[in-house]
Design goal:
- The structure is a single chain.
- 60% of the residues lie in helices and 21% in strands.
- The protein is of the alpha+beta class.
- Strands 1-10-9-7-6-5-4 form a 7-stranded antiparallel sheet, with helices on one face. Strands 2-11 form a two-stranded antiparallel sheet.
- Strand 4 and strand 5 (146-160) form a beta hairpin.
Length: 540
């Protein structure tokens, strides 16, 4: 339905009062249009960049990449380029972020998706200059046989908003040329004239605008694409960090095992060369020493394998030198705080706050709820429009509109298909339930993961002191049996068994330390510290 609620065409002698009233009516309507659209736009579009991923308290994802570029161009910005390179847990996390080829590829995919969203939003809020030529050919045989054409050439700008509002401003010139049949003279006469015009038109949607609904759905799709890319980047980054830390911890573990068995071999070698060793026991010692050397060599091969994988994860190239920092195995502050229920609850809460999946799903719920609300009130599609034209300059002719103006407006009302709106509402509600259930399931898994890791860390910590005491006892026992062997108190098998038990207990202590370090690394990842270390934060 189209209803033209006002129209006025002035000629000579139109009151100045009416002209002024018309001009102010146009201005007030357009002011309301722009302010309303701008408000809605700012609330909905510009501030709704999903997953507020920033670097070092900045405000956009782009700064993450800027931070990376600055870090790579200025080695002093981060410590990963120090010489000689010393690898520890924090350094591993930094290097995965800055140097891992796969992480960098995922980051660029995320940036591309984010810029695709910004491109989409820019298209919905575009500001378009234009030049247009309009030509109307007319024939009025019952009006003195009038025949001719009217030409308008205008230049202007068009502004659209996400909410579906449109503002058009244009100015230019008009020219008309007509021929007339003169009944009295019996010949044709020609008249022409030209003038200038200034025109403003505004459109504003109300209620359940179909254009707005379509744009909300389209933007939701674009945001979903951006979210998936961001979530993929964050998940893959965490996965690569977890993997790199795992191989780092394995490298440390096998380095310890190599040292343990090298001491084992050294002790047996010293025993084999001892002048008081019985000749009949030499081959027995050499046999056990050969077995220890084989075990050491096996561990050395595994260490080379794990360090090569670690190098690939953190971007260390062939020939680059580095050392591995041996960690201090003590209970971390994070794990220590989990001893009491309150500390454990705070740990789980922090993990939820830093979990990118929760942020993405909550944003998705907000967007889907917007679609649901739009579908509920989308029975009617109402658009109001207002247009005003001024003719400040013109020539004396039959078509003279000098100092004239027109104001026109109306309403466009359409009924949206209720079946489509109902299906849209039901779909949105189902998606919201899905997102909430996914969050609930993720929360359960996250809580269970943290409980398992913290309990394992605390158990290992409690057992480490006992294992260390056993190691000390076995070391003293070996020294006692070594003395007893040369005094004739024990045989060679008893002596070798004692040294083997010492190596076994030392290996058990190394295993305890490795399990604790691996669980600490996983806990660091679960609560989101791996994001904080490289400057990635999640803004509300």
């Amino acid at each position: 339905m189209n209803y033209r609620f006002f129209h006025c065409d002035t000629a000579e002698g139109l009151s100045f009062f009416l002209m002024t009233l018309g001009r102010w009516t146009v201005c007030l309507f357009l002011s309301a249009l722009l302010s309303g659209c701008a408000k809605n736009l700012s609330e909905r579009s510009l501030s709704k960049i999903p997953v507020g991923l920033t670097a070092k308290s900045t405000s956009s994802i782009a700064h993450v990449e800027q931070h990376r570029e600055e870090s790579e161009s200025n080695p002093r910005a981060v410590t990963v380029d120090e010489v000689p390179l010393v690898l520890n847990q924090e350094k591993i996390i930094q290097m995965v972020h800055l140097k891992s080829a796969q992480v960098r590829a995922d980051r660029e995919e995320m940036n591309a998706a984010k810029n695709g969203l910004l491109e989409f939003q820019a298209n919905l809020n575009r500001f378009e200059p234009f030049v247009e030529l309009r030509n109307n050919l007319s024939d009025f045989p019952h009006r003195f046989g009038a025949f001719g054409n009217s030409v308008e050439t205008v230049a202007g700008v068009k502004k659209e908003t996400f909410e579906g509002g449109v503002l058009t401003m244009e100015g230019g010139g008009a020219y008309s040329r007509f021929t007339f049949d003169k009944l009295m003279s019996g010949h044709k006469e020609e008249e022409s004239g030209g003038g200038a015009l200034v025109r403003i038109r505004g459109e504003k949607p109300f209620f359940g605008s179909r254009r707005r609904q379509e744009r909300i759905i389209a933007q939701a799709f674009q945001e979903s694409t951006a979210r998936k890319a961001q979530l993929l980047y964050l998940k893959n980054y965490r996965s690569y960090v977890d993997s790199a830390l795992s191989y780092f911890n394995l490298s440390v573990y096998y380095s310890q095992l190599i040292k343990i068995y090298q001491r084992y071999v050294d002790d047996l070698n010293a025993l084999a060369k001892h002048p008081q060793l019985k000749v009949s026991d030499v081959k027995r010692v050499q046999s056990v020493m050969g077995s220890a050397e084989t075990t050491r060599n096996t561990y050395d091969a595994r260490l080379r394998e794990y360090t090569q994988i670690l190098e690939a994860h953190i971007g260390i190239g062939p020939g680059e030198e580095y050392t591995i920092e041996m960690p201090e195995y003590r209970l971390s502050t994070i794990a220590s705080n989990a001893r009491n229920p309150a500390g454990l609850s705070r740990l789980i809460e922090k993990a939820g706050q830093n979990n990118p999946t929760f942020r993405v799903l909550n944003d998705a719920i907000s967007d889907t709820e917007l679609q649901r609300q739009q579908a509920i009130k989308g029975k009617y599609d109402v658009t109001a429009f207002l247009e005003g034209t001024l003719f400040p300059v013109g020539s004396e002719s039959f078509d003279n509109r000098l100092d004239g103006w027109t104001v026109g407006g109306g309403l466009n009302v359409r009924l949206n298909d209720r079946h489509v709106m109902e299906a849209t509402r039901l779909k949105a509600e189902a998606q919201i339930r899905q997102f909430k259930a996914t969050i609930e399931a993720e929360e359960i898994l996250l809580r269970q993961r943290i409980l398992t890791m913290t309990h394992g860390i605390l158990d290992n910590h409690n057992n480490r002191k006992k294992i260390s005491e056993v190691v000390q006892q076995k070391s003293e026992e070996y020294q006692q049996r070594l003395k007893a062997y040369f005094d004739g108190g024990v045989n060679i098998d008893q002596l070798l068994d004692s040294r083997s038990e010492l190596a076994s207990q030392e290996s058990g202590l190394a295993s305890n330390q490795y399990n604790s370090a691996d669980r600490e690394s996983n806990l660091l990842s679960a609560i989101g510290n791996i994001y904080e270390i490289v400057g990635l934060t999640f803004d509300d």
